[in-house]
Write a sequence for this structure.
């Protein structure tokens, strides 16, 4: 079977018109242009001159982190497309929550949807993300995350996955893929070969999947096989090692057992392509991550990514240098002519599958785009799902529903909304929402030591969603209280009703097992904060179910 025969098979399923386009484009490309097709570069910020420089490199695609300025976003994407010989594929992390478009519909992230546990809600949410993404030119989403919340200390899996139950992850990831791909967005199963049993972050180091192959088959093997069977178009190969598989081939592998998947032929070709029969496109995870940079210098690892089975390289801190390194590897044979052809053809096949040879499918009409974004029916549907997500983990003293007649004076300990792309914490809308309900809200200060003479209720608002380049997410009592050593050790709930609300990381009971009331809300979006207030005052019930063990295995945290 030739590579063109493979492209006629699922998941690309190209017809003869698409095959002809792929052939013609490939034949027209110089070596430099072929190498360019292997790169998805990152567009972040607002420097249009930098965007033009990236476009001049003729990359196969770009990933855009969108600003709130719709007109600006339309202009920079349109400019990129117009300057490209081959239509670039625009990609994004359509994960919902803070990744939702600022000018679009607020959509729950994966863990919030797992708390709702309604696959129709998950598919509908993915459809909303897909339609609005297409309006901005996005045709490839690096979702769903099918990692497993097994290690509760992990700062990177957290709110990005569908929880810890394999059945639930499977149901919702299938719905996620269907919602995207039925609406013209290529989905990506990530992070191959599976994350979540190592409590560290592959942004900082190569993480290890410690499972035996029997355990792996029951978990990640099952999930990847199912999504491959459902026609997922892409798999993201992570900077994650799977030593059990490597040792099954080479028992004395030594350090090679811990080679990241992104540069492992055994994991990408032998396991994913040959055993699991994946015929779509394999894209590496972001190459600047510590999980790869700790393994080798980028001029070494870039060619290894392609030579070892990935078809596309995600991001580059030095694209000119990295493209030159890949070109040099082609010229000296480290990347064979056959491997280069296969990788480039799969990139073009993805574009052909998405009909990017039709200009209207690259970037839709501006008026059409504005009509799609934040449609009332989309906003209403997502709001209904959001309302069902807050999860009352425990309320041992029965403080809910809150009533300003009983607990009017509220001390709010505001941990801030932490986002990896924001230099300063964002502000919660929670104080204003509570004030509208009739509560008198005081924001905590270093000089305040809570007492029942001054306050009727203490609320801790925590806003750490899954964070990259954070080794741990934990309750930093010293920083949060701001009052020095003794305030950091003081706990008010022995004489003042108290509640912790996590609008992100679902495992804060590990650091506060004795707090009498605890809520998980999974997202820091304003709409989620509104939903939590609705539940706390009794206007709506808490309907969310725990998609993970919020007690972190601690029996005392339940009381």
């Amino acid at each position: 079977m030739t590579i063109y025969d493979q492209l006629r098979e699922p998941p690309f399923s190209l017809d003869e018109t698409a095959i002809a386009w792929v052939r013609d484009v490939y034949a027209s490309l110089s070596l430099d242009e072929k190498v360019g097709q292997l790169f998805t570069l990152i567009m972040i910020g607002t420097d249009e001159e930098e965007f033009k420089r990236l476009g001049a490199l003729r990359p196969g695609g770009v990933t855009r982190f969108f600003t709130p300025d719709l007109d600006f976003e339309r202009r920079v994407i349109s400019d990129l497309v117009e300057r490209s010989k081959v239509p670039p594929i625009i990609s994004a992390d359509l994960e919902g929550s803070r990744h939702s478009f600022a000018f679009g519909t607020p959509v729950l992230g994966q863990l919030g949807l797992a708390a709702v546990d309604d696959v129709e809600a998950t598919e509908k949410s993915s459809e909303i993300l897909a339609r609005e993404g297409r309006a901005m030119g996005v045709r490839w989403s690096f979702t769903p995350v099918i990692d497993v919340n097994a290690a509760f200390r992990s700062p990177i899996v957290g709110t990005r996955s569908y929880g810890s139950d394999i059945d639930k992850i499977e149901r919702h990831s299938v719905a996620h893929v269907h919602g995207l791909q039925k609406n013209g967005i290529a989905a990506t199963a990530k992070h191959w070969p599976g994350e979540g049993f190592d409590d560290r972050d592959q942004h900082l180091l190569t993480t290890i999947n410690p499972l035996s192959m029997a355990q792996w088959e029951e978990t990640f093997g099952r999930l990847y096989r199912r999504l491959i069977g459902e026609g997922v178009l892409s798999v993201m190969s992570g900077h994650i090692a799977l030593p059990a598989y490597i040792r099954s081939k080479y028992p004395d592998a030594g350090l090679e057992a811990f080679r990241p998947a992104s540069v492992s032929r055994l994991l990408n070709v032998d396991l994913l392509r040959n055993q699991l029969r994946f015929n779509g496109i394999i894209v590496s995870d972001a190459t600047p991550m510590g999980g790869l940079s700790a393994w080798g210098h980028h001029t070494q690892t870039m060619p290894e990514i392609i030579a070892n089975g990935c078809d596309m390289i995600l991001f580059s801190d030095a694209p000119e240098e990295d493209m030159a390194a890949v070109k040099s590897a082609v010229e000296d044979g480290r990347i064979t002519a056959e491997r280069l052809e296969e990788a480039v053809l799969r990139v073009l096949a993805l574009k052909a599958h998405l009909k990017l040879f039709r200009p209207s499918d690259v970037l839709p009409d501006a008026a059409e785009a504005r009509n799609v974004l934040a449609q009332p029916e989309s906003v209403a549907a997502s709001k209904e799902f959001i309302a069902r997500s807050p999860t009352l983990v425990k309320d041992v003293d029965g403080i809910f529903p809150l009533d300003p007649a009983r607990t009017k004076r509220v001390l709010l300990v505001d941990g801030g909304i932490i986002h990896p792309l924001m230099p300063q914490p964002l502000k919660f809308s929670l104080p204003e929402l509570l004030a509208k309900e009739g509560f008198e809200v005081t924001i905590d200060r270093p000089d305040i030591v809570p007492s029942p003479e001054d306050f009727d209720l203490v609320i801790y608002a925590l806003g750490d969603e899954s964070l990259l380049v954070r080794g741990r997410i934990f309750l930093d009592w010293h920083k949060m209280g701001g009052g020095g050593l003794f305030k950091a050790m003081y706990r008010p709930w022995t004489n003042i009703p108290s509640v912790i609300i996590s609008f992100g990381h679902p495992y804060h009971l590990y650091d506060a097992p004795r707090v009498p009331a605890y809520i998980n809300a999974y997202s820091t979006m304003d709409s989620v904060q509104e939903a939590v207030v609705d539940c706390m005052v009794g206007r709506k019930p808490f309907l969310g179910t725990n998609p993970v063990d919020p007690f972190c295995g601690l029996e005392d945290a339940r009381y």
In short: The radius of gyration is 24 Å.
